[in-house]
């Protein structure tokens, strides 16, 4: 709740994998709030933006992610990340530091990015997101966890907001197996 941040290990950008789907979701919903996009529009994959947004977060659907990214454009995603102060983000390479990921999740949870309804929409998807075997088992069952996992090659990441109703923390773990996925 203090906004302080502690960093351990590598501090530079790493392969974010699907963790950066949270950035796509917040950018798209921000564009909806600005009147530039609509949740009911049909995207290039034939699905509505609303459906793709839900699939992208809850089951980590890469086709939905591609459609939303194409609708926004990589230039738009890069500009949005820069506006948020996520200076490590590289839209084309999909790299992001754990620190900037923590900043993104903190801003989302504190309602700094979206209106309350859209904030809750993203959080509700993160609450039921798949790949629940990393951070979630280490958290007491009475706490609430909103998270997003990303895996690519030997990089396994999990980014979570953990709350007990009184206090909240953001925990972001990015790993690189250095060629040895296990």
Concise description?
Helices cover 37% and strands 16% of the residues.
What does this structure look like?
By secondary structure, the chain is an alpha+beta fold. It is built from six helices and five strands, in the order E-H-H-H-H-E-H-H-E-E-E. It has helices at 21-33, 49-58, 62-72, 74-83, 98-109, 116-127, and strands at residues 14-15, 95-96, 144-152, 155-163, 168-174. A three-stranded antiparallel β-sheet has the order 3-4-5. It has a two-stranded antiparallel ribbon with strand order 1-2. A hairpin with a 2-residue loop joins strand 3 and strand 4 (155-163). It is globular and about 40 Å long. The model has no long low-confidence stretch (mean pLDDT 94).
What is the distance, rounded to the nearest whole angstrom, between the alpha carbons of the first and last residues?
34 Å
**Computed Rg:** 15 Å
Order of helix and strand elements from N to C terminus: EHHHHEHHEEE
Largest sheet properties: 3 strands, antiparallel
| Low-pLDDT ranges | none
**Percent of residues in helices:** 25-40%
- Identify the strand order in the major beta sheet: 3-4-5
Number of DSSP helical runs: 6
Number of E strands: 5
Strand content: 15-25%
Which class of secondary structure composition applies to the elements? alpha+beta
Sum up the overall morphology in one term.
globular
Overall pLDDT metric: 94
